[in-house]
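Ticket opened by: R.M.
Priority: normal
Category: complex prediction / small molecule

The reporter submitted a protein together with zinc ion and asked that the result be attached to this ticket for the collaborator who will pick it up next week. Submitted input follows.
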Amino acid sequence: MSLMKIYTYPDDILRKKCLSVDNISSDEIGLIEDMIETMFANKGVGLAASQVGVLKRIIIASPSASRDNLYVFINPVIVKGEGKVAGEEGCLSLPGTDGEVERYKYIYVKSLNSEGKEVEFEAKDFFARIIQHEIDHLNGILFIDHLGFTARQRAINILTGKKV
Ligand code: ZN
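Result attached by the on-call engineer:
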């Protein structure tokens, strides 16, 4: 296992759409192991493959930031979302910033697990928030895109080191 570089704003790779994974080979398994290592080393609760420079639809999530509570999702799709709730979000690719983002409170997700088996499940609250944030990454969307103009500008100024 090895640590991977986390790409940060405004790197172009964060704006690219990731491609579906057709076949889970040793490459994908190795990537997932490295993503897990990288996420925990950086004290993250979620990570998308595009954040480490790989344009594949793979995300990992650990709401309690611990290995005994770790989820791997390949080609995840939100089938249905219910309720709306605002909450604070940060991102390893946007260090030093956070913002309040409205997300679904409940989501129904279809995905492959790391064995390539199709799984369907319901997630809520913080776990649902992480999954929505990470699936956004697979589509080139960042949490700051969901902020209002002023909050987004403030975040971009912090990220680009611009004094205001
Ligand atoms: Zn993120």
